[in-house]
Amino acid sequence: MQVGIDQIGLFTPDKYVDMVDLANARKQDPNKFLVGIGQREMSVADITQDAVSMGINATLKFIDKIDKNKVGLLIFGTESSIDQSKSASLFVKTALKLKPEVRTFEVKEACFGLTAALMMARDFVRVHPEQTAIVIGSDIARYGVNTAGEVTQGAGSVAMLIKADPSILALNNGHSAYSEDINDFWRPNYSRTALVDGKYSTQVYLDFFKKTYTDYKKQKGLKTSDFDAITYHLPFTKMGMKANNIAIEGQDQATMIKLERSFAAAKQLSSRVGNIYTASLYMSLLSLLENGELPAGSLIGLFSYGSGAMAEFYSGKLVEGYEKQIDPTADQAMLDRRKKLTVKQYEDVFNTALLDPEDGLELTSDDEVGTWYFAGTKDHIRQYRVKE
Ligand code: CAA
């Protein structure tokens, strides 16, 4: 029996900053951000969007297409948690009207959280093939205004339905995992923004890629030329390009061209949305599906990395008819609906969102009708509403 990704939905908030504007404001050469970092735009979450609301909005992209009664597991991966105790997934479960018998919780290991959720969901469905699982990754990447990491921020969520006989990607058996207790990126409980040793994190990311990719190929008897595409966790697109360059080094011309082309397709959404931590790898997968023109049966490698640090390489095969399950036009329209902010507006929106609204204050959303949003706290309980 094959188990894998049956549905995939992306959400990003309704505001963005252009990287050329940001470079000019920070007195940097725009090409450093556009080429050196590889980012064109960056989504900005105002105070009415958080991990929960974005996760609901991502799942709404496919919820009407699935049998909700079959969902036995709902896992939420995030490093932008909204509560130290209660899982974000419970708010989502209520909004989506899932049955009370669903097993639901939140997981954390930096950007690895959604992969952790996906692997648990895969094993759950293998044991309970008549049931399905929803996994959500949802994050706001915040390094702070005028920091080195500022250009690698972003906001968004990816939700996926994991199912037997999936319609998009059948996951292959086996994986290669690697972890070490290191301090490349972390966010202490007292801070809303991340602390990062950017150069070190880049070095560890590439080192873990080499280890897991080499081990995976050996384990499965695969060569680089066997892959039709490799997708990467993309904190910024240049990071994935560096890993892809390692993968194709010394390969024949056809393999190099094939994996460069597929990487170009896989980075498109990330270059406009920015870093969405847990969901970045899966936004890259979606971007590949929407722009890569890959035939069914294509072998796709997936490299997941979470600072701290934990990495995993695994693979899947594209299922016949996968194109019918995705909607590139709708995703483009979602990006195009975003309002462009000036750098000053972005700074104000960003800094306001770092603060908790006064308890009892009702927040309103300026996003489209039908979008879920955080409406403030009432008696210190977070309220989520749908825009009418
Ligand atoms: N034209 C073209 N390229 C230019 C340029 C120009 N005018 N000026 C500079 N560049 C290039 C540089 O040569 C450099 O390229 P290489 O990386 O290939 O050498 C690139 O632009 C970046 O330049 P710098 O290294 O000088 O940039 P920086 O000091 O401002 O730092 C950064 C960049 C380390 C990515 C920083 O933005 C950062 O710390 N970001 C956050 C950390 C991060 O995302 N780490 C990634 C892995 S960790 C992870 O994945 C965890 C997670 O998501 C949470």
Question: How is this structure best described in words?
Answer:
The protein is an alpha+beta fold and 388 residues long. The protein has 12 helices and 17 strands. It has helices at residues 19-25, 30-37, 51-63, 88-96, 113-127, 198-220, 237-248, 253-266, 268-273, 280-291, 328-336, 343-353; strands at 3-11, 15-18, 41-44, 71-77, 103-107, 132-141, 154-164, 169-171, 176-179, 185-186, 195-196, 229-232, 299-306, 310-318, 339-340, 372-378, 381-386. Strands 1, 4, 5, 6, 7, 8, 9, 12, 13 and 14 form a 10-stranded mixed beta sheet that branches. A 3-stranded mixed beta sheet has the order 3-2-15. The protein has a two-stranded antiparallel ribbon with strand order 10-11. Helix 6 (198-220) packs parallel to helix 7, helix 7 packs antiparallel against helix 8 (253-266) and helix 8 (253-266) crosses helix 10 (280-291). Bound molecules: acetoacetyl-coenzyme A (CAA). Residues 29, 31-32, 35-37, 110-111, 148-149, 151-152, 185, 196, 198-199, 201-202, 205, 233, 235-236, 239, 275, 277, 305, 307 line the site of acetoacetyl-coenzyme A (CAA). Acetoacetyl-coenzyme A binds at residues 29, 31-32, 35-37, 110-111, 148-149, 151-152, 185, 196, 198-199, 201-202, 205, 233, 235-236, 239, 275, 277, 305, 307.
- Gyration radius, to the nearest Å? 20 Å
- Tally of DSSP helical segments: 12
State the total count of DSSP E strands.
17
Number of domains: 2
Task: Note the main sheet.
Answer: 10 strands, mixed
Helix content: 25-40%
Relative strand content: 25-35%
Q: Give the name of the CATH superfamily of the largest domain.
A: Thiolase/Chalcone synthase
Given as residue ranges, the uncertain stretches (5+ residues, pLDDT < 50) are none
CATH architectural group of the largest domain: 3-Layer(aba) Sandwich
Q: What structural category do the secondary elements indicate?
A: alpha+beta
Give the overall form. Answer: globular
